[in-house]
Every structure is written in structure tokens, then in C-alpha cells.
Amino acid sequence: MNQKRDRQFGVPPPALQRMPVYYRRLMKAIEEEMPFVSSDELGRGVGVPGAQVRKDLSHLSQQGRPGIGYDARSLASHLEEFLGLINDKEAVLAGVGNLGRALALYPGFERYRLQIIALFDNDVAKVGKTIGGRRILPMEKLANLSQRLHIQMGIITVPASAAQEVAETMIAGGIRVIWNFAPCRLAVPEDVLVKNEDLAAELATLSHHITRRKVAMPDEVGRGDGDGGRLEEYLC
Question: Are strands 134-138 and 130-131 parallel, antiparallel or unpaired?
């Protein structure tokens, strides 16, 4: 994400990324009929201290009550407005592979008022099929449909080799916000916002932590006879 552009709106990118997590914690508190939530409770969700939470929320001119916390409903309402969650958002998705299909069927977007209204793919075997009530359209129709319907957001789940061309097609159709799941960086005009989700890089990071934890663990389990005997002991 272009951090320089985020700062023009007065909110540092790390703070902006934490806001949706605060919102989820507030919604859980409301469901549990908790009228107030402390900054420490909000911070535990993202691993930051209460002082950082209070600093983040100061961008919304929100202040908690000492010893009591934040009014859960009031703060949730302010976050909904700040994050644009009260506004309906329509998006198109390009690349209906396993990931694209999962995103197209994901029900959690409804809470954030996001609706994926059209799916596109260049595989003739997929074009014409229906996913979640939406027919998969050929890629060449993407720009025209986006322009006619004034779509502002595009989701890219194609291979890296095709991502730049898809992004350019979206931009030609008037799209100015791109959620990119392809493992590559896109070259876009200054007025286009790109949010990259590099799943492979995230997996590599997790793999690194797993490896470090294995090295740090005592050598107690699973290195006995090599015939599975130790595993059987733990399963019994």
C-alpha cells in the first residue's frame, strides 16, 4: 500500500491496519453485551499496549473514560464511518481459481458491505459457469463492465505472469483500488491504490518461525526407534 498517500489523510499506515481489528473486538464485545471495552483489551488483539491503542484512536477524536474504557457501541459506530463500512462497495474479481473461488464465496465480506458482483477468467472451460449465483465472464469484458457500472475496486487472483495486464485492464475500466493476491508488484498510476497480499511471503515467514521453534524445543518427542513406537505411546 502506498504509505505516502495514507499519511495525506493523517493516519499512519500501521494505525490504519489496526483499526479493523479494533472494530472486530468491539463487535464481539457488543455481541457479549459488554458496554465498555478498555484500551488494553483492544490492544491484545493486535499485540500492542493500551497506550498505542489510545494514540491510534485519537485520529478519530475518540477518548475513553479513565478506569472504564471506551463505549463499545459509540466507538464501533465511529469506526464504521471512518473505515467506510456503512457504505456499499462493489468489486469485480479476476481469476477464478481456488483462491478466487474462495474469495467469491466468502460470507465475511457482507459485514464490511463489500459485494463482488462479477467474476472474470480467461479459461474458456470456466467461462459461463456459475459461482455463488454469478456467471463467470470472459476477461475481455472486464474493462467495459467496470466502466459502465462505475466499479471502484478490483480483486486480482491470477498468476503473477498475468497480473500486470489484468491490473491495466482494470485501470482502463476506471478502477482505482486494487486488492492484489498475485505474488508480484504492480506498476500503476499515482492515483491508483494497490493493497498487496503475498501469501507465499507470509508462508515463508511462518515457516521461519516454525523452524526456529523446532530448534528451540527439547529433543523429547518422536526420535526414538524410528518405527513409530514413540508416537504410539502418545496416542495411547
Answer: antiparallel
Write the class of the CATH domain 89-197: alpha beta
What stretch of H or E contains 87? none
- Length of the chain equals 236
**pTM for this one?**
0.67
Higher pLDDT, 44 or 63: 44
Beta bridge partners of 194: 178
pLDDT score of 3: 41
Q: What are the structural domain ranges in the chain?
A: 3-82, 89-197, 200-235
- Indicate the fold that domain 3-82 takes in CATH: Arc Repressor Mutant, subunit A (1.10.10)
Question: Where is pLDDT greater, at 158 or 68?
Answer: 158
In terms of DSSP bridges, do strands 153-156 and 134-138 run parallel, antiparallel, or are they unpaired? unpaired
Q: Is the pLDDT of residue 217 over 80?
A: no
Tell me how far apart the alpha carbons of residues 4 and 10 are, in angstroms, rounded to a whole number: 10
Q: What is the pLDDT of residue 219?
A: 57
213: left (phi over 0), alpha (psi -120 to 50) or beta: alpha
Rounded CA separation 93/122 (Å): 12
**What's the CA gap between 186 and 179, in Å, rounded?**
11
